[in-house]
Amino acid sequence: MNAYSETVFNAKTKIYTGVSSIKNLGPVLQEIGAHRILMVTDQGIKHSGILKNVLGEIPENIEVLIYDEVKPNPDVASIDETANNYRKKEISALVAVGGGSVIDSAKALAIVLTNESSISAYYGFDQYTEKALPLIAIPTTVGTGSESGNAAVITDETDGLKTKKLVFGEDLFPRVAILDASLLRAMPSGLIASTGMDALTHAIEGYVSIWSSHFTDALNLHAVRVIGKSLLPAIAHSENTEAMHGMLLASSITGLGMANSGLGMVHGISHAIGAQYDAPHGIVNAILLPYLLEYNWIANPEKFKEIAEALRVNIEGLSVEEAAKAAVAYVKNLTKEAGIPEKLSAIGISKEHIDVLVDIAFHDAQYMVPNPRKMSRQDIYNILDQSI
Ligand SMILES: [Fe+2]
Predict the structure, then answer these.
(1) pLDDT tens by residue, 199-258
(2) How high does pLDDT run on average in the chain?
(3) Distance from the alpha carbon of residue 275 to the mean position of ligand 1, in angstroms
(4) What is the CA radius of gyration of the chain?
(5) What is the rounded average pLDDT of the residues 295-320?
(6) Helix, strand, coil percentages for the chain (3-state, nearest 5)
(7) Residue 75 has what pLDDT?
(8) Which InterPro entries does this one have (predicted)?
(9) CB 297 within 8 A of CB 325
(10) Which of 19, 40, 163, 347 is 20 to 30 A from 276 (CA-CA)?
């Protein structure tokens, strides 16, 4: 692929931003003509008080049903079972309040509630026939980006092997996203660190992806810039509204970027690990990111130099190659400052299943193809061997 290759840039979601932008939820639901909505969330959000704040914005003439049992790494059984429970309830819209697992679950439900089959029938691009229910996404982490993209990640178990599958579609772009940092004032610093590093991973992997374009570069590189200056202050204090607002917006900006640029093998390997170990996506990505940057930078030193500039690394007097390496070193150190462990073994990943992980990641074309440097099985093995 070169700068003149044919691409398409796809964006659908109307995005409200700013402190108190949650007040738009009521008017948006009225505009859609919703009479009964399904609120999709998890126990953490329920107990944090965020759900109560969101519920306070729903007009009285709209009935609210609540599904608050979303677990990390949602699987086929949980989606199908939930859809069966709500299929006859005549739901007119979904409202997702949560992180990536919640928003992806809501996307999957939006399809399965209007189409008859299991979510596993809709892997790939636009495989469903009936229009999905409208979805409003209210992210409560600073990393998923799912609120502005057209994909849902679902854990599938076939023949005893767990893998992550992707469902893509025009209807998976949420109708509306609301990015209100005032909802995140009590967010734990560890969650800001892990989801924020996930956003940085999206931005960097998207920027150096083989499928990137001028459109996606504009989004992904700007996200690197905003995350670079906002991440540590946000981790330091979740009531730093400027930093949290920056993180929330950057996460969505690169969410739209990555929906069009694709990602790379941090996500390829992390999805293999996430499915096998039910491990938290953000932390796995954050641990893997420096190892993959070290591997990938030679594919595009110029872009890595631009990443260094976006991260405000002093590259004066350095060659392009030295500046690219400075970007890698900076991210490695940022991971440490964010309190992320250096090795996957710190979160319970062992070398016992390394061959299975290599096999799954090697066959994941969605991430293998756009990764800027080709990877063999041995290359993936080496990355896992070093990072575990
Ligand atoms: Fe991610």
Answers:
(1) 999 999 999 999 999 999 999 999 999 999 999 999 999 999 999 999 999 999 999 999
(2) 96
(3) 13
(4) 20
(5) 98
(6) 55, 10, 30
(7) 96
(8) ADH_Fe/GldA, ADH_Fe_C, ADH_Fe_CS, Alcohol_dehydrogenase_Fe
(9) yes
(10) 40
Please tell me the distance between residue 59's alpha carbon and the centre of ligand 1 in angstroms: 33
Interatomic CA distance for residues 130 and 133, integer angstroms: 9
Dihedral sign for Cα atoms in the order 353, 355, 356, 361 = positive
The tokens of 12 are what? Answer: 């659908």
**How many residues are given for the chain?**
388
pLDDT at 293 over 80: yes
Query: What is the band of 1 on the pLDDT scale with cuts at 50, 70, 90?
Result: low
Which phi-psi region, left, alpha or beta, contains residue 262 (left: φ > 0; alpha: ψ -120 to 50)? left
Give the domains, in start order, of the chain with CATH numbers.
Answer: 14-183 (3.40.50.1970), 187-387 (1.20.1090.10)
d(CA 147, CA 279): 22
Q: How far is the CA of 196 from the centre of ligand 1 (A)?
A: 10
Q: Which residues contact 113 (CB under 8 A, 6 or more apart)?
A: 83, 86, 87, 91, 132, 133
Whole-number Cα distances in Å, 377 to 184, 255, 257, 269: 41, 29, 28, 11
**Distance between Cα 88 and ligand 1 center (Å):** 33
- Using CA atoms, how far apart are residues 184 and 54, in angstroms rounded to an integer? 12
Which of 176, 43, 172 minimizes the C-alpha distance to 104?
172
Distance 285 CA to ligand 1 centre (A): 7
Return the SS3 of 101: helix
Instruction: Fill in the DSSP letter of residue 12.
Output: -
Ligand 1 mean position, distance from CA 60 (Å): 36
Using the mean position of ligand 1's atoms as its centre, give its distance from the Cα of residue 67 in Å. 24
Q: Tokens 């969650």: give the residue.
A: 191
CA of 91 to the centre of ligand 1 (A): 29
- Model confidence at 6, pLDDT cuts 50, 70, 90, reads confident
289: pLDDT strictly greater than 70: yes
Q: With CA atoms as reference, report the closest residue to 141 among 220, 26, 50, 10.
A: 50
Q: How far apart are CA 26 and CA 15, in angstroms?
A: 15
How many angstroms separate the CA atoms of 274 and 272, rounded? 6
